[in-house]
Structure prediction request, 410 residues.
Amino acid sequence: MRRFQRNASIFADKDALRESYTPPEIEERDEEIADYMDALQPVIDGWEPDNIFLYGNTGVGKTAVTDRLMEQLEEDAEEYDDIDVTVFSVNCKTLSSSYQVAVQLVNAMRPDGGEIAATGHPKQTVFRMLYDELEDIGGTVLLILDEIDSIGSNDELLYELPRARANGNLEHTKVGIIGISNDFKFSDQLDPRVQDTLCERELHFPAYEADELVSIVESRAEIALKEDAGDEGAIRLCAALAAKDRGSARQALDLLRLSGEQAERADEDVITEDHVEAARQELERERVEEGIRQLTHHGHLSLLSIVSLAAADDTPARTRTVFERYQNVCETMGISPLSRRSIHNHVKDLVMLGILRERDNNSGSGMRGNFNTYELDVPFDSALSALAGELDIDERASELRRLADINDVA
Ligand code: ADP
Ligand code: MG
Prediction:
């Protein structure tokens, strides 16, 4: 057996590229931080805090900036004897209702023993426990509800909490809620009364531009990589690729980590643009595989039809052609086919998922009008490998690969 050997050429602190790492410095968010601090000013002044709703795509620094600001706020509040600030933070990603969030909050406030079970208590009892805990803490309590959009329209807690003082449920403690959402439409679907209170202060973090991502990746590379292990061009490429996609710092940093792993595997001690390119393909492949895994059986078969057309260099193809190939595929596999209409819908879904690209063709004759054609919008090989993982088609997959080779399909 090969022996374990420490990899030591690229990373100085690889953990600094993990999701859970809080960076010591926040780059490029001065304006947003100034607005955020404004919204938190009542806390330092000793007044009842405003509730804050912070939204923006994933990876734009909402959690990182909030963590840093809360540390700062707790530290600065120590300077004033008459205020007492406590912060509790709950990530709601795996919680789907107000009830579950309330249970998590109670448990966050009862760290050693006394935790309650996630089910089984009447809702009003859990809310009562929450008020009791809050009342015991006193002063100002800020509740960070990160990824709050996962509770959907189950938003009772967001209605109850801000009214707790007015309703006599809280006397000593001032509570402020900071709701953070990846989905800007979340606030639209809230009960209008909840919207009014939760969104007293609304903050938006826009996607990052390429040059902003360069400084974020550069400063993180200084911590995470060995000196000179990151080529300047490679770092710029991580930033540029992420900027072109969704402007997410998470994505740029993931690229850097995967590129480092590529370099390590190749036994090299500098990350180059080639490593970044290989890492990008790896991420893309993961994305495609994830999307394909989620399709239904006939979704897989529809995609297989297009993949087999692509292998023969017969794409872009019209719905009619795709359907004929699909019928063919079903016949050889002994499956009864769905209607042309359903396959058309499956094809549309594949377009929505970014797996296929739709083109609007003008026939020019004026007789039949326009028609759409479809082709793969992901690498042929990724689509075929992912399908082969889902369907039992090993032999057919090698055949298609050979055919694609002959036709020089990338
Ligand atoms: P969000 O909560 O908006 O999804 P995060 O705050 O988790 O995004 O940011 C994603 C990653 O990018 C984290 O590793 C975070 O530390 C880093 N990051 C985001 N914005 C910045 C920034 N302005 N400066 C430094 N690091 C950042
Ligand atoms: Mg976050």
